[in-house]
Amino acid sequence: MKPAANLSLLWPELPFLERFNAAAAAGFKAVEVLFPYDVPVPEIQAVLRANGLQMILLNAPPQTDTGRARGFAGTPNGEAQFEQDICHAFRYAQALGVSFIHVMTGDNAGPACLPTLIRNLTWAARAAPKGITLTLEPLCEATMPGYFMNDYVLAAEVLAAVDAPNCGLQYDSFHAQMIHGDAVATYEKYRSLVRHVQLGDAPDRGAPATGTVNFRELFHMMRSSGYDGWVSGEYHPGGPTEDTLGWMKLA
To answer: Keywords of this protein's UniProt record, alphabetized (predicted)?
Structure first.
């Protein structure tokens, strides 16, 4: 397993571009940024090169100034906007060498959400440039009230319907613990679908070993399953980020 740093949450006291320097100094080789679209691509490219970092993930679609919620892949009658925005995310990802795009579904808008999401994700999987994997991440009610993709059972159903090799599950220990009560059991049940892992403890999305998730057991489960991908810290450090990085040795 390979540790990565989510720079949208870690080192919150630093200006955005300085977080790349801090991640490299802490020993990370890769970073992810949830919504990097407001920063010019050349600036991010330069700081990645200067620190020998790889950027591995971003969210889609981009945030806008139109008042839309974060994500609308499952919102009925929004297909044209989805296609336009996901293509913008593809261009951004290609420019930065990103390999994972988390496709955000938006809020639950009724029974039409599921078929809309399946159609949109199927289209996006076919349109995605080579080397990019699309992910679905179930998000818990505590942090994203009303969000449509709020259950691992639902994520598995959608991925089975789309049935594309470049679509998979984004597993987050915080959300898994909050949604299903046992992050380790949730990983074990859905491990064949997992393409990317994010770490946070429950119930406060704090650093690993500050809450109820059994990370030693979780890391053992990931190793025994053969997972050898990125494991990204996505949590609120609650103090100096450097003091919370003991999980890197376990990974």
So the answer is: Isomerase, Pyruvate
- 79 given a catalytic annotation: no
Catalytic residue among 18, 137, 141, 217: 137
Is 18 annotated in the active site?
no
Q: Dump pLDDT digits (tens) for 66-90.
A: 555 678 899 898 899 899 999 999 9
Cα distances (angstroms) measured from residue 214 to each of 163, 183, 200, 221? 32, 8, 11, 11
Q: What is the pTM of this model?
A: 0.95
Q: What range does the domain containing 178 cover?
A: 2-250
Number of domains present in the structure of the chain: 1
CATH code of 62's domain: 3.20.20.150
Listed residue (162, 214, 166) closest to 187, CA to CA: 214
Tokens of 83: 């296609």
Cα separation, 113 vs 128, whole angstroms: 22
> 56 and 230 in contact (C-beta within 8 Å)?
yes
Neighbouring C-alpha atoms within 13 Å toward the C-beta of 13:
7
51 touches 44 (CB < 8 A): no
Give how far Cα 166 sits from Cα of 25, 154, 194, 207, Å.
32, 18, 12, 30
H or E element in which residue 134 lies: strand 133-136
Residue 58 and residue 102 in contact, taking contact as beta carbons nearer than 8 Å:
yes
